[in-house]
Write a structure and sequence with these properties.
It contains 2 helices and 36 strands. The strands form 7 sheets. An 8-stranded mixed β-sheet has the order 1-2-26-35-28-29-30-31, with no helix packed on it. A 6-stranded antiparallel β-sheet has the order 25-36-27-32-33-34, with no helix packed on it. A 5-stranded mixed β-sheet has the order 6-5-4-3-22, with no helix packed on it. It is mainly beta and about 525 residues long. Helix content is about 0%, strand content about 45%. The two termini are about 35 Å apart. It is globular and about 75 Å long. The longest helix has 5 residues. Bound molecules: beta-D-fructofuranose (FRU). Beta-D-fructofuranose binds next to strand 3, strand 7, strand 11 and strand 15.
Length: about 525
Amino acid sequence: MKFANNILLIFVLFSSTLLLFSCKKEESNSIIAINSSEKIKIDSSEQYKEPFRPQFHFSPEKKWMNDPNGMVYYKGIYHLFYQYYPDDIVWGPMHWGHATSTDLIHWTNKKIALFPDKLGMIFSGSAVVDLKNTSGLGTKENPPMIAIFTYHDMAGEKAGRTDYQTQGLAYSLDEGETWLKYEKNPIVKNSGIKDFRDPKVFWNTETNIWNMVLVAGDHAQFYTSENLINWKFESEFGKNIGAHGGVWECPDVFKLKVNGSNEEKWVLLISINPGAPNGGSGTQYFIGDFDGKSFKTNQKEIKWIDNGADNYAGVTYNNTPDGKRIFIGWMSNWLYARNTPTKNWRSAMTLPRELSLEKINNDYVLKNSLVESFNKQSVSEFSKDMFAIKPKQKISFTYDHLNQSEVRFKSASKSLKLVFYNEVNDSLVLNYDAPQKTFSIDRRKSGIVNFEENFGKNIHKTATPNIVSETIDYQIILDWSSIEIFLNEGVYSFTEQIFPKKPYTKMSIQSDEKQEIKNLTIHKIKGIW
Ligand code: FRU
């Protein structure tokens, strides 16, 4: 047994009350109390300290946010733009909010980058650095940063037209600080497709041309351009493949190496709303090939990047320094995004995740695991090399900072139940069922759930055939109103919002079978605001 510094460990052993009533020998339960030297203070009046406010996830200073937009790295800085409505905590005329970071964890809020204009609201899109000044909007010495987004013309929509979404361009000559709209907008007109939006633009290093993928109702469209201004339609993809329970939104396409081989495949991300496995919004992916003009795949089944209810509209960074593929999603779901019980602001982004491809069960799996810089945020509070759980035995931990923590351990790939709870009987139950090969999240009693009928309605259960190892690596991140779970370093990830009436301060682990839990660590995660 090994314990980190500053830990006061108390084992309180007591017999299960069941013993009194049954002759069957029950194993004793145990409670382990972890004391932290420092207290985290959340005071409801201060900004970024309101109830439910994430402490190490990006959330806007105030008001409404949805999709991440324009994610681009330039000169040491990661830019994060986002769908933003500065006047209310529900969706309204969309702007692009802006924040920057040097490590993808600590964010500086910047002023609003893009405002609606006479062509419409500013919907989702992407940003690039036009290093060769192909657009002519800057110079080679001072390349323009270029944002390509969707204009949504509300008046056109109200008038019953179908061409009210077009693609517009804006550029910045001061590395994203201030923005100018291109005077001949829109750059891509609409031929009468109602949902025609969310352009993702990138420089294709294989074909040396700009590519754009956008969505058009039930499919994606691919375009090419020499100068980011004139776009040529090349092909479409997806009318008869994948999930189609709702409109396609927020596409992204990029190439990844398959871990442990020289093989490379292209990944196409497509968000859909509604039609996700847990209801409402979700992001599916396709693995295939892309020649710069068209995307092809042999994939038959539907794959989801995250199997929780709250990871939507996620896309990846352009221009990262080390070629890493970094993904951020919006940690909400259109089913109830407008109703969540927060004041002053609404919603947060997922933690940034690095994407990679792995072949499991002779098929491609898109893994997402936390970016490395996240590790610097953790303060070691508790660690235990190994402990055994006997069948039906419950081992509980009490820890004041559980709701701002990372819990990590390895178990044998046997059934395991993990419960996070508090003194007012809120409980969030995670369950790995080995015989069924499923993982489930039950947030029905996790806290406040009645703000919308769907939020706490069902247990979210996922088949996990890609857990093929003898041990399962669990990584669980809690940040006041969210939980992110990574199994086997992101072979499966689950992201969910939770609104406990009081912070969870207790966690229990139990199993129907004899289990050994290895390398358990419970870390406090430092706040960023
Ligand atoms: C996805 C989405 C996008 C759209 C934006 C509007 O959540 O519906 O398709 O551009 O939000 O805010």
